[in-house]
Specification:
Elements lengths: L6 E8 L4 E8 L13 E6 L3 E10 L2 E10 L7 E5 L1 H13 L17
Antiparallel strand pairs: 1-2, 3-4, 4-5, 5-6
């Protein structure tokens, strides 16, 4: 580990037991360009459909929808207006999800609705 590596270290020292426990957390930075492609942010996808978010510009305002769809349907199974904070929180949780394929891989397989 070099000085340049951004890390966080927490130490739990037990003087009586002559031991310590250290947790070292390394910081990783991630940049994603073109998060929404053609207005869609697909967080989960499989052969049956996808779920995530849709972004639309309506009357000079940005509106976000949480969506769920199937490829064989001509309509959304679920489409709910949400705020930008809901999108941010979902992306944050998705990046932390070990089943999502790791940071930067936003799509993963999902069970059909």
């Amino acid at each position: 580990m070099s000085v340049e590596d951004p890390v966080d270290v927490s130490v739990d020292l037990d003087v009586d037991d002559n031991s310590l426990r250290a947790v070292v957390t390394k910081r990783h930075e991630l940049e994603v360009d073109d998060l929404f492609v053609d207005g869609e942010l697909r967080l989960w996808e499989d052969g049956a459909g996808w779920s995530g978010y849709v972004r639309e510009e309506i009357d000079d305002a940005t509106v976000y929808y949480r969506v769920n769809t199937r490829f064989d349907e001509e309509r959304w199974i679920d489409r709910v207006v949400v705020g930008e904070q809901a999108v941010r929180e979902s992306v944050r949780q998705h990046i932390r999800d070990p089943l999502a394929g790791g940071a930067g891989t936003f799509r993963r397989g999902c069970s059909p609705p």
